[in-house]
Amino acid sequence: MDTAPTEPEVENLGVHDCWRYLRTASLCRIAFTHGETVEIFPVNYVPSNGTLLIRTGEGTKLLAAAGHKVVAVEADGMNQYGTIAWSVIIKGNAAIVHDDEDIQDAADAGLSPWQAGPKNSLMRITPAEISGRRFVIAPPAQWWAPQEPAGRA
Fold first, then answer.
1. Phi–psi pair at 108, nearest 5 degrees
2. Following DSSP, what letter does each residue of 88-127 receive, concatenated?
3. How far from the centroid of its chain's Cα atoms is residue 71's Cα?
4. SS3 of 62, please?
């Protein structure tokens, strides 16, 4: 009989579950190349019609959107008990939103920046690929392999 502890399974999420989880969070990280380096920024967002809307100001993120750059977005979260975690990654293109109706939709959805200062531009991330996973969070006793005390061999 095998009595070894089993590893909790990682469940790959379907597209609908990914969007369901994205609607429960408001903070993600956006990553893209800028010159010879990779930039990554925390941003707040709202899902909108199969895309993500991000409000931003002048700077690197806006330049990426203006250039229709390929971006990656990652959002994470956990259930209220801290026992099940999820992570969703979107790979797609960024673009600046100019449509007044979309801008109003973002405002109505409560998209507002956390950081002070002018954030008068709106970016839309249109997914080319979306993936996610959900898993049970291992108890801290399982995070590290048992170590032999120093001096024992």
1. -65, -30
2. EEEEEEEEE---HHHHHHHHHTT---SSSS---EEEEEEE
3. 11
4. helix
CA distance 54 to 14: 23
Question: How many helices and strands, by DSSP H and E, does the chain display?
Answer: 3, 7
Q: What number of residues does the chain have?
A: 153
Structural tokens at position 18: 């990914």
The two three-digit tokens of residue 10, written as one number: 């990682």
The pTM of this model reads 0.80
Pairing of strands 70-78, 51-56: unpaired
Q: Which residue has the tokens 């100019």?
A: 98
Sorted by sequence, the CB contacts under 8 Å of residue 94 that are 6+ apart come out as: 30, 32, 61, 64, 65, 68, 69, 71, 123, 124, 125
Say how far apart CA 128 and CA 84 lie, in whole Å. Answer: 27
Task: Report d(CA 127, CA 52) in Å as an integer.
Answer: 8
| pLDDT class of 66 with cuts at 50, 70, 90 | low
Per-residue model confidence as pLDDT tens digits over 70-129:
899 999 999 998 889 999 999 999 888 888 887 787 778 777 777 767 767 788 899 999
